[in-house]
Amino acid sequence: MSISLTVSTIIFLLIAARQWLPSAIRIWHIMTFGAIVLLGLRQITFKEAFFAVDWDLILYLFSVFSIASALYDTGISAQISKRILSRKSPNAILASYVLIMAICAALLTNDAAAVIGVPIALLMARDMKWGVVPLLILLCATVTIGSMVSPVGNPQNILIANAGEFDNMFFVFVEWIFIPAAITLVLSIFWLKRFLKIDDPNHAVGIQSRESDEITQKWPPLLSASLLIILIALGSVLHNVEGIYHPSLGQIGLAACLPIYLASRERRRILREVDWPTLFFFISMFVVTGSLLKSGSLQFFLKESGIDLSEPETVTFVSFFASQLFSNVPVVEIYLHLLHEHGTQTLMMLSAVSTAAGNLFIISAASNVIVLQQAEKFGIQPFNFWQFFLLMLPVSIISVTISYIYIIWYGSL
After folding, report:
1. Is the pLDDT of residue 165 over 70?
2. How far apart are CA 218 and CA 318, in angstroms?
3. Helix axes 3-16 and 312-326, enclosed angle (nearest 10)
4. Which pTM does this prediction carry?
5. Can you give the residue ranges of the Citrate transporter-like domain (predicted)?
6. 43 lies in some domain
7. How far apart, in whole angstroms, are the C-alpha atoms of residue 387 and residue 12?
8. Interatomic CA distance for residues 359 and 365, integer angstroms
């Protein structure tokens, strides 16, 4: 076993067992320390590590995190919660919240939606006397499932969209994944809402919403969010038009967040509140996977085993179970490097299943960790490992099963 494979295995096992480690140790600490160890052991050079990082993805995530931070900082999240709570019935309130968060995840990534959705969920739990734990778990399921239908819905989809070079990446994702995602989301709501009324002493009584007179300069983050959506849509439509410049997703993100950093009086605070730990996690993850790929260990194993990575059953099995140990983003990063052909059905199966795999454990998706960490910022004790697993196990089984059946069926047409 190579040093890179050994270190990578230790990293991912530590991430899998993080709930038993001291609370001060975060996932990004483990991944970053692993990257430093591999650099120190010269398993990958600094130059190789730099080029192993998908900087376009990092720039895009920085941009959407900046927009998410600004939306909360200016009180827009509180205003959204008031609009949602103005609905007449609890079912309408819950449905509105889920729909808004799913759309936000599809357009701004699940990680950004997690940042935006936590304070709204806590305000709803306080006013509706709902349990914080099931509502936050519902948020995790919503942003994960909502992100499935968009090429910019989550980091692994961005990697897949770049690898696939689709004519119209939005249309392809909607065509293959929208229906199973919509069915899964509806079934998940029916399953999880039954737990909202369970007695929970942690009713987010300390969370406070901002009053309207405290909210200033709302237009920069609103303009940035609008620009991001418009530029991504235009980029998708004009993707195959020759003779014009085609900006990358990272460039689009940076252009969209310019109003925040040029015009907002709170730009320094917004910059500080960007989810830097998650960005460090992804940078370190790319270094670790780059070292692992450089070692050739995985390529040798696959060659000796004779596994065909393009088979739907193999894609489903490997991407689902590997995501539980490695988290879905590094799994997709490695998988794409090992695939010989990037067929549409293979890529869509990889996207759907690796994303749906994030519904099983806290560590299976970065957005789950973000929800947990954001709740802790507000002094709330969120869900633990077993609470998350027990409530999300049915959601995970349903999402993977429906996605697999639909993609196989649609690919046979």
Report:
1. yes
2. 44
3. 70
4. 0.79
5. 18-336
6. no
7. 21
8. 8
> CB burial class (10 A; 0-12, 13-18, 19+) of residue 146?
buried
Q: Which amino acid is at 168?
A: N
The whole-angstrom separation of Cα 50 and Cα 52 is 5
Domains in the chain, number: 1
Residue whose pair of structure tokens reads 């050739």 in the numeric block:
296
- Helical axes 385-411 vs 312-326, angle rounded to 10°: 160
Q: Which two tokens stand for residue 233?
A: 């849509």
Residue with tokens 């040093």: 3
Tally: H helices and E strands in the chain: 21, 0
Name residues whose C-beta falls within 8 Å of residue 323's C-beta, 6 or more positions apart in sequence: 331, 354, 357, 358, 364
168-222, pLDDT tens digit by residue? Answer: 788 899 999 999 999 999 999 999 998 987 655 555 545 555 444 454 678 888 8
66 near 270, Cβ under 8 Å?
A: yes
All residues at 6 or more sequence positions from 217 whose CB lies less than 8 Å from its CB, including other chains: 74, 263, 264, 265, 266
Which domain range does residue 375 map to? 52-411
Residue 287 within a domain? yes
Residue 102 lies in a domain: yes
| Spatial CB neighbours of 186, under 8 Å, sequence gap ≥ 6 | none
First to last CA, the chain: 43
Classify residue 344 by burial, with Cβ atoms within 10 Å: 0-12, 13-18, 19+.
middle
Dig out the tokens for 407 from the structure: 């993609």
Amino acid at 213: D
State how far the Cα of 236 lies from the Cα of 288, in Å rounded to an integer. 31
Q: Are 163 and 340 in contact (CB under 8 A)?
A: no
| DSSP summary character for residue 289 | H
Question: What is d(CA 268, CA 72) in angstroms, rounded to the nearest whole number?
Answer: 14
Decide: 8 and 292 in contact? Cβ < 8 Å.
yes
Cα–Cα distance between 289 and 337 in angstroms, integer?
10
Residue 6: inside a domain: no
Torsion angle, CA of 391/396/397/401, rounded to 10 degrees?
Answer: 150
Residue 308: count other Cβ atoms within 10 Å of its Cβ. 11
* Tens digit of each residue's pLDDT (9 = 90 or more) over 82-131: 889 888 889 999 999 999 999 989 987 888 788 888 888 988 888 888 98
